[in-house]
Amino acid sequence: xxxxxxxxxxxxxxxxxxxxxxxxxxxxxxxxxxxxxxxxxxxxxxxxxxxxxxxxxxxxxxxxxxxxxxxxxxxxxxxxxxxxxxxxxxxxxxxxxxxxxxxxxxxxxxxxxxxxxxxxxxxxxxxxxxxxxxxxxxxxxxxxxxxxxxxxxxxxxxxxxxxxxxxxxxxxxxxxxxxxxxxxxxxxxxxxxxxxxxxxxxxxxxxxxxxxxxxxxxxxx
Length: 221
Description:
The protein is an alpha+beta fold. The protein has helices at 62-70, 73-78, 88-109, 117-124, 140-153, 167-174, 188-205; strands spanning 8-10, 16-19, 26-28, 32-37, 43-46, 55-59, 113-115, 129-134, 161-162, 181-185. The strands form 3 sheets. The chain has a 4-stranded mixed sheet with strand order 7-10-8-9, sandwiched between helices. A 3-stranded antiparallel sheet has the order 1-2-3, with no helix packed on it. Helix 1 packs antiparallel against helix 3 (88-109). It is elongated, with a radius of gyration of 19 Å. The chain starts with 7 loop residues before the first strand and ends in a 16-residue tail after the last helix. Residues 1-14 and 214-221 have low confidence and may be disordered.
């Protein structure tokens, strides 16, 4: 019989899915986080999906991971005792944030980030901006003005906006001070950061981030 650990379906071509061990909903792997049992019997988040062993897949949001800990879903899915690190849900959030900021640093090194309100505004006129980045502690008026410029430059469509990181965090990742606004220039590095940052933001938002994308699966274990 197929278990929550083993379940795999195929959606779009090349889009492997897994079933969340807690909610029982099938989702693309990009919408889940894999956990494995370490040699010492401790549950370890496997964000890069490279660690050996049987995996437990959970929807990639804080609420689901915290609830899985509370309901002892890891041990049930693996059919063995599993030790849970203190603050696992918060630990995962920190790892996702670090991963996104690392991708931001790489995009910057690749020349794919323009910093400052005026420079970002200039970049928007080229039509090559993939997304805007605002520090979470940026002034609302500055964000609103730059977002309006993005809508105008994109014929009303607008652009993705990332507001998940403080100015200090963005500055540390880029080797700059006082990073308030930035524009990501189209390219592979920008897309990797955008995907990682969106994943980190969605995780922090909790299960509500998935409410409109999937319906609950009522299948029982």
